[in-house]
């Protein structure tokens, strides 16, 4: 009888043993760091993916490319924004509305030379395919102009014709010279040049802001370009004026904070262009993504980053992911200059996290960062800084060794 009962229960017992959900906790398969990060980000509205401020860490870039793919495919993120000039992506949106297909080269150019390396290469066709299919919207959030882009080479010729009378030719000549930086003795660069250019862009913004002027989708994008150009050149003029009025060597945070504010304004505007709520990946340096920098023990505590505005508006709907490394090397993105990383100090966040662990990475989520308390660490610029890091970011991935990116041939 007992033997018969055993035979009847055997299939049930076997099924329980083979079912991971029924297995004892100690037999459960541990999640990888990448899986834990996807789980933490999946239900957020904004995933701010940071990186060290030099933008030249290959392991970080490779991880972020794969993380972007997973967030789109597994978590239904449908928007990709990056810390680069907004102009090329606005142009891409105009081309799409005209029914044109956007090439991978145009997407790569819009991302810009800072990330022109092999590690980023897999991201380009992934984005281009979805941009053309209309399943993903991409945008730049910076107001700066990158070299070799539509903004530098073509934008002026498309925008200046909106100006009227002799102003059109006057502005075209000065702005084109500035875009190509072709100054000489006959046409020197002086503090009056950006002031004149600012006047041109303000005139353009005024023309494009007239009732009915921005009625078409392309005109709306052009007005947004003009607004960014005004903010960009205003900052240049203001910084020159403030620099001349301050003692030599004085660090002025106006330019940093004004740029971050401008990036948040672009982020807000881009999100507002969709009639439905979007889930956005925001790719930028951690020093911009950070929720709060006032807690640092360095001068960076004076910065007001994009992430501070995001945190104020979106709260727990946003997640800031930072990156760091225990050792290795990195470059100044796009410049070719390389730097070695000293091994992590034993008392540092990186040293503590990697100590006693054999894995190649170590992910610290928010609760782990809070438990570790204020520590010296280097996720912002590979310079040691002390802070309660749980107030700066929501999670931190630490590589045992960072490596150099592989630049694309020029």
Q: How many helices?
A: 16
Helix content: 40-55%
Q: Summarize the helix and strand pattern as letters.
A: HHEHEHHHEHHHHHHEHHEEEHEHEEE
CA radius of gyration is 25 Å
- The whole-number mean of residue pLDDT values reads 91
Low-confidence parts, pLDDT < 50 over ≥5 residues? 1-25
**Order of adjacent strands in the largest pleated sheet:** 3-2-4-1-5-11-8
Q: Hey, roughly how much beta strand do the residues contain?
A: 5-15%
> How many extended strands?
11
Largest sheet: 7 strands, mixed
Classification by helices and strands: alpha/beta
Spatial shape: globular
Distance between the termini: 81 Å
Organism: Corallococcus terminator
Keywords: Signal
InterPro entries: Emycin_Estase, Hydrolase/PRTase-associated
Protein name: Erythromycin esterase
């Amino acid at each position: 009888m007992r033997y018969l009962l055993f035979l009847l229960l055997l299939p049930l017992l076997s099924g329980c043993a083979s079912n991971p959900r029924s297995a004892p906790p100690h037999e459960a398969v541990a999640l990888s760091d990448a899986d834990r990060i996807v789980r933490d980000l999946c239900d957020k509205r904004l995933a701010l993916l940071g990186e060290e401020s030099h933008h030249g860490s290959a392991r970080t870039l490779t991880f972020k490319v794969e993380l972007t793919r997973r967030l789109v495919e597994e978590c239904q993120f449908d928007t990709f924004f990056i810390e680069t000039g907004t102009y090329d992506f606005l142009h891409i949106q105009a081309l799409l509305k005209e029914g044109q297909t956007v090439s991978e080269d145009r997407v790569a150019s819009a991302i810009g030379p800072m990330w022109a390396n092999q590690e980023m290469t897999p991201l380009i066709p992934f984005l281009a395919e979805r941009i053309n299919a209309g399943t993903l919207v991409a945008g730049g959030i910076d107001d700066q102009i990158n070299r070799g882009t539509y903004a530098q080479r073509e934008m002026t010729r498309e925008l200046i014709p909106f100006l009227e009378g002799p102003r059109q030719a006057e502005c075209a000549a000065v702005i084109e010279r500035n875009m190509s930086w072709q100054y000489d003795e006959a046409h020197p660069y002086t503090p009056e040049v950006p002031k004149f250019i600012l006047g041109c862009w303000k005139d353009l913004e005024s023309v494009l802001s007239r009732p009915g002027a921005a009625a078409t989708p392309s005109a709306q994008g052009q007005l947004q370009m003009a607004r960014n150009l005004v903010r960009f050149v205003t900052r240049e003029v203001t910084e020159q004026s403030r620099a001349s009025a301050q003692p030599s060597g004085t660090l002025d945070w106006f330019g940093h904070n004004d740029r971050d504010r401008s990036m948040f304004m672009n982020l807000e505007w881009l999100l507002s262009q969709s009639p439905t709520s979007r889930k956005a990946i925001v790719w930028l340096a951690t020093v911009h993504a950070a929720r709060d920098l006032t807690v640092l023990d360095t001068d960076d505590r004076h910065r007001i980053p994009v992430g501070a505005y995001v945190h104020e508006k979106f709260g727990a709907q946003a997640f800031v992911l930072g990156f760091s490394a225990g050792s290795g090397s990195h470059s100044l993105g796009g410049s070719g200059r390389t730097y070695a990383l000293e091994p992590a100090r034993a008392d540092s966040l990186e040293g503590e996290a990697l100590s006693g662990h054999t894995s190649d990475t170590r992910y610290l989520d928010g609760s782990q960062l809070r438990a570790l308390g204020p520590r010296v660490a280097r996720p912002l610029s590979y310079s040691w800084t002390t802070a309660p890091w749980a107030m700066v970011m929501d999670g931190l991935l630490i590589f045992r060794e960072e490596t150099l990116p592989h630049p694309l041939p020029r």
